[in-house]
Amino acid sequence: MPLAAAADVAQQVVSGLASGGVYALLALALVIIHRSTGVINFAQGEMATLSTYIAWTLTANHGWSYWPAFAVTLALSFGGGVAVHRLVIRPVERGSVLRIVIVTIGLLIAINGFVVWQWSGEPQQLESPFGTETFTVGGVAVARHDVGAIGVALAMVLLLWALFQLTKLGLALRAAAVNPEEARLVGVRVTWMLALGWGLAAGLGAVAGMLTAPTVGLDPQMMQAILIYAFAAAVLGGIDSPFGAVAGGLLLGVLLNLLGYVSRYEPFAWFTEELRLPAALLIILVVLLVRPVGLFGRREAHRV
Amino acid sequence: MKTLLELDDVRARYGPVQALHGVSLTVREGEVVAVLGANGAGKTTTLRAISGTVSRSGTVELDGRPLRPVPEEVARAGVAHVPEGRGTFVELTVTENLRLGAYVRRDRQVKADIRRIQGYFPWLAERGAQRAGTLSGGEQQMLALARALMSRPRLLLLDEPSLGLAPLVVREFYRIVRELNEREGLTVLLVEQDARIALAVSARAYVLEAGRVALAGTSEELRGNESVRRSYLGY
Description:
The structure holds 2 protein chains of 2 kinds. By secondary structure, chain A is mainly α.
């Protein structure tokens, strides 16, 4: 491969990892809620959009700089996620899965309507805290925002890993998710753990939104396609596997970018931008048909 | 000996089916008490009524204080319930199961306690990183017991620990329960289908029939009782 082409590919991989990091965070949010509540939260993307608008309001209307707005938005989103579980999900939790799914779809519509009502449908610009410049490493042009986004996504994943694996609270969160009845018998307050899970998921979504907005622009539909990508990432990695969600997200980001890249060349010219979303849906379909547990999911072997 | 647990006129139901029709019993501190009975007599339901995992009426008192039927509160009050069918978190590791057992504790001796309990179950030490679901049935039952002990319970509820286990494993399990009772004064309320072993381990026992206490006495008395012998001991 000519050197210039290799540099192009490397560049595509880096920006693919950046968007993949965003998919990974949102996929992780889906996985956390799926593990504990047993449903896909269809409102996850809209919740993230709402969070991003809050961050935008703080920076654009109140003159805050990005990072304080980031921190406050994260805290508000966490609280909002907890509140959504307590007020909206918990009352229907004992019903069928379908009821919860319908409630999350209702939530999607309600939040989207609220965002349009509050901020109008007009696109807004959230500035990147990393700047818009690119720099060159060994002939590869890299956007500073992409590197920053990868870093923030990785930091979130590591923090979350530490919370779940190294702390007593994390252990209780996992216990409540895998076996709520048993968890109550050892004294875990399960309903609060589920609410905390919703809070964490909302926080992850907020970060995903705040990393996305500077590159694609903030509008009420911003996270809708990304939710599909996140869903594809979660299914690809294994819907109950946090590690799989992260790996699936990064893989999907890079894959879609490389497909976009090869479409520059004659035999693949048909793969245009419009086919990205259908490609993600195709991945969901194929994985569900061929390997429903995903790449990293575990088939639970029940012993009697 | 002072009364630790007191059930008074406890009734419980699963939907339309009433499983307990007013059960009263007591467990004194440091005692091992067995609950015997046929399938469906209400043995498991009695334990679930104590831990609050079934809706019930009547009073359950621990140390003179009423227990509300909320499982996490009952656990926090010092009751460890090992449910039927190996109460372990199969997705979590052995050590994580033990740490969860100590979840309600606030003190700093959890690590020391893990070592103390590994003294009773030496294999737990080498296999701490193994997922509980990969253990054998007997090992899972031992782990469930070890996990319950990690909470330093005032009262241990054991539900059919012998179910599906090889006789040798059952004997080992009860040897440890007995040792804990004798050495550490552990109070146990035990539900067991195998009346022979239950009466051998316990000091007193209750016999349930159709959701009521049909018979109560010291285990020695019950071993000599004609109808107990015929119905539950089989000779």
